[in-house]
Design brief:
Layout: H1 3-17, E1 36-38, E2 43-50, E3 57-68, E4 71-72, E5 77-83, E6 96-101, E7 104-112, E8 116-126, E9 129-130, E10 133-139
Antiparallel strand pairs: 1-2, 2-3, 3-4, 3-7, 5-8, 6-7, 8-9, 8-10
The protein binds copper (II) ion.
Copper (II) ion binds next to loops.
Length: 141
């Protein structure tokens, strides 16, 4: 195949998954394992959620991989803030994040105090490079 044909095929994909728009996905997630969300620099790939779908209460724990240009990023610290923008409130406590290795991290507890749409703002600080990634999830019960 000529080289220019390959480039044309690649363009629509690139338009979908880049752009650095920190705005959350338009559709809230029900299940979160395997989901990805991106900020200006980093992508959060949710590896596992316990339980999945997430539920109301102080019981949710998620593991995720932090990626930059598809490569795992180690040594980051995080501030995580779940909120319900439509209600103007957050939750307590905000989750604590620990590093598992290989660019993987675990955050817990995600205390969804009521059903509805939650925006989980994940703010990495990787040697002073900061970003905000928002995962949007619909807690059903
Ligand atoms: Cu609420």
């Amino acid at each position: 195949m000529p080289r220019h044909a390959l480039l044309l095929l690649a363009l629509p994909l690139a338009a979908c998954d880049t752009g650095g728009d920190p705005a959350p996905a338009d559709e809230p997630l029900i299940s979160v394992a395997g989901a990805e969300a991106s900020g200006a620099i980093y992508t959060v790939q949710v590896d596992e959620a316990t339980p999945d779908p997430p539920i109301r209460g102080n019981v949710n724990a998620w593991t995720f991989t932090l990626l930059e240009s598809s490569a795992p990023v180690t040594g980051c610290r995080f501030e995580v803030e779940p909120t319900m923008p439509s209600h103007g409130h957050g939750t307590e406590p905000n989750p604590t994040t620990i590093e598992l290795g290989g660019g993987r991290y675990e955050m817990r507890p995600l205390n969804f105090i009521m059903p509805g749409e939650w925006h989980i703002a994940i703010r990495p600080d990787c040697d002073g490079r900061t970003d905000e990634i928002v995962v949007v999830v619909e807690i059903q019960s």
